[in-house]
Inverse folding.
């Protein structure tokens, strides 16, 4: 188990594959960012298919997975670029998580990299690309969209999230909850092991991090910053969406993607995945891996020397 301290908090990470050289034409490292109440492990089916050609980094966000220890020692802060835009200054805001990732990459001497973010992780990836452009070659947002604030829907979503965090009890792992989680948010039932993992990640996540990351990322102000963020990014950005995703409906993905410069030029920036709900990397890992290869083959600029080389 590999860990490193980021702003006072132990962060778990996993590296797979060969570290690319800095010569032009070498593949960029891939960094995978998980979503709310999840962890690094959900990326493993995709990493298994890509690590032969790419160095792959998956890690646990602060407060989730194995990065939930020593949280009282956290040194809070957000990037200056996020602060200038009026982003949340909470330690559980998107800017704070982007700051964590930048520090992790600098410690591991990685960059520039491609970011692949799922759901909440997609928003973290967008802020990371804005605040630390020297570290980010491109972004892929998976089951991630938004930018349109619907007050009633967001209130219901936030209330549901608060309820989920509030009713967690350790004994629930011994109930039918793991079986239920093989069916929630997906198009077809997952293997039981995934339901068990989802149950453990849900129950073990730090309460303040779980609640804070949900509430801070779904305020009206934060939601309305996303389109502006996407419109001004200079790196290539792509979206993947499950056609049967009931959590992040395809129309919300298309809405956010419509702000991309490439979208205004008539380019298709949303890859739709059939027979797929909200967990594309687990439901359709082969399709996701193939799509990522295609994106990397067509979107990556020649590798330039960075401050981390």
């Amino acid at each position: 188990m590999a860990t490193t301290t980021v702003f006072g908090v132990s962060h778990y990470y996993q590296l797979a594959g060969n570290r690319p050289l800095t010569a032009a034409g070498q593949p960029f490292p891939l960094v995978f960012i998980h979503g709310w109440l999840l962890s690094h492990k959900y990326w493993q089916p995709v990493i298994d298919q890509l690590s032969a050609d790419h160095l792959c980094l998956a890690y646990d966000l602060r407060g989730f997975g194995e990065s939930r220890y020593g949280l009282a020692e956290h040194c809070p802060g957000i990037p200056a670029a996020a602060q200038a835009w009026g982003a949340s200054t909470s330690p559980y805001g998107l800017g704070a998580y982007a700051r964590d990732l930048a520090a992790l990459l600098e410690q591991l001497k990685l960059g520039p990299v491609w970011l692949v973010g799922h759901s909440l992780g997609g928003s973290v990836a967008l802020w990371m690309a804005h605040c630390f452009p020297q570290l980010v070659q491109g972004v892929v947002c998976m089951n991630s969209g938004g930018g349109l604030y619907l007050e009633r829907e967001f209130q219901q979503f936030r209330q549901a999230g608060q309820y989920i965090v509030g009713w967690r009890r350790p004994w629930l792992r011994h109930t039918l909850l793991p079986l239920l989680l093989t069916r929630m948010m997906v198009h077809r039932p997952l293997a039981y092991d995934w339901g068990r993992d989802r149950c453990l990640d849900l129950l073990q996540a730090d309460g303040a991090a779980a609640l804070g990351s949900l509430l801070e990322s779904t305020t009206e102000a934060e939601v309305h910053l996303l389109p502006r963020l996407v419109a001004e990014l200079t790196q290539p950005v792509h979206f993947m969406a499950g056609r049967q995703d009931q959590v992040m409906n395809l129309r919300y993905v298309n809405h956010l993607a419509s702000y991309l410069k490439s979208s205004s030029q008539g380019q298709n920036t949303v890859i739709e995945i059939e027979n797929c709900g909200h967990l594309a990397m687990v439901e359709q890992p082969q399709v996701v891996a193939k799509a990522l290869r295609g994106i990397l083959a067509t979107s990556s600029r020649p590798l330039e020397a960075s401050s981390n080389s």
